[in-house]
Amino acid sequence: MIIYLIGMSGVGKTTIGKQIASQINYQFIDLDSTIESSTKLSISEIFDTYGEKYFRKKEQEELHKTFTFQNAFIATGGGIPFFYNNMDLMNQKGKTVYLKLNPLVIYDRFSNNDKLTRPLLKKGKKNFIKLFEERENFYQQASIQIDVEKEDYTSIILGLLNIKA
Questions:
Q1: How many domains are there within the chain?
Q2: CA 3 to CA 34: how far, in whole Å?
Q3: Which of 9, 12, 40, 78 is 20 to 30 A away from residue 110, measured at CA?
Q4: What is the pTM of this model?
C-alpha cells in the first residue's frame, strides 16, 4: 500500500512519515528531496530560477514515479493536491492522509531563516494563513484526516494499514 501524506509545509509530513515507515519497514520518500536531488537545486532555487510552473511539472513527474511502489510512505509537497488532478490520482493509487495543524502553529514552527528561504513563507504570516484556507478544501478530500496536535497519528495510520504497533 502507498500512503501519501499531505498537508501544509511544516506540518510534519517528513518527520511523521520517516518515523512510521521505519517502525513497519516501509519505504519512505520525500518528494521535495527527490526533486532537489534530480535537479541539483533547492526548492527555493527552483522557484527563483524557473518559477512555480516548472516546479509543479517536476513535482508531478516525481509523483507519477510513485504509482508503482509497494509499501511506501510518500511525503508530498504542500501544494501537490491542487495541480494536474494530483489529489484524485493519489486517492486512486493509494491512501491519502491529511496531517492537519493550526496554520499559526505551523508558521511559528519555522525559523526566521526558513521564512526567508521557503517560497510560500516569504510573503508573511497573513498570506500563509490565506494559502492554508485556500488549500483546506483540497486537503479535506483525503482518505483520512488527522489533527496532529490532538490525535495519536501513529495509531490512526497503523490502523489504516491494519498493523498493530
A1: 1
A2: 17
A3: 40
A4: 0.89
